[in-house]
Amino acid sequence: MSSKVIIVMPAYNAATTLEKTVKDIPRGFADEIILVDDSSEDETVNIAKRLGLTVIVHDRNRGYGANQKILYDEALKRGADIVITIHPDYQYDSFLASLFAQLIERGICDIVLGSRVRTRRECLDSGMPLYKYLSNRFLTLLENSVAAQNLSEWHTGLSEKGT
User: Fold this and answer.
1) Can you identify the CATH homologous superfamily of domain 5-116+154-162?
2) Number of C-beta neighbours around residue 18 at 10 A
3) What pLDDT sits at residue 160?
4) Residue 83, class by beta-carbon neighbours within 10 Å (0-12 exposed, 13-18 middle, 19+ buried)?
5) Rounded to the nearest 5 degrees, what angle is found at the Cα of 135, between the Cα atoms of 132 and 139?
6) Residue pLDDT, tens place only, 26-63
7) Is 113 helix (H, G, I), strand (E, B) or coil?
8) CA distances from 155 to 49, 81, 87, 113 (A)
9) How far is residue 77's CA from residue 56's CA, in Å, rounded to a whole number?
């Protein structure tokens, strides 16, 4: 790949799943992995540093939206051609990131979205709590009808976009 690829990870209390998520990313694929920790109360920051990630730590919890904005700003400041968002909660197959990036680099897609929602059972078995599943389904139905789309999940934690 000739594009500069930066993976961004919005994190909050991801100590139990972070290492497993990072280890599934194809080795040598990304130029950098940036994790923004939203004031976790566990060992997320120490694990991320041990794994060699670039770590930015919020002094207080700023929320998911602020965390994402900082991640994208950092990736763009560092010259990313392709930005990949992977939530470190191991609900997505981070191995697929390199395949998705190829679709962008070759000009086939402008954006690629992963989805946890193929079947209800698979979604719940992957670790999504029932209340989040129900909220996700309701909001996705609402957003699809407003935007005249048919996405399986609007609130994905695996996405890639070319800059």
Assistant:
1) Spore Coat Polysaccharide Biosynthesis Protein SpsA; Chain A (3.90.550.10)
2) 27
3) 47
4) buried
5) 140
6) 988 899 999 999 999 999 999 999 999 999 998 898 88
7) strand
8) 27, 23, 11, 10
9) 14
pLDDT tens readout for residues 120-163: 777 777 777 888 888 878 888 888 789 888 777 766 654 545 55
Q: Which residue carries 């694929």 as its tokens?
A: 29
List beta partners, residue 17.
none
- What pLDDT was estimated at residue 149? 82
Domain ranges of the chain: 5-116+154-162
Q: What are phi and psi of 96, to 5 degrees?
A: -75, -10
> What does 17-54 look like in DSSP terms, one character per residue?
THHHHHHTSPTT--SEEEEEE-S-SSSHHHHHHHTT-E
Give the dihedral sign, CA 102/107/110/116.
negative
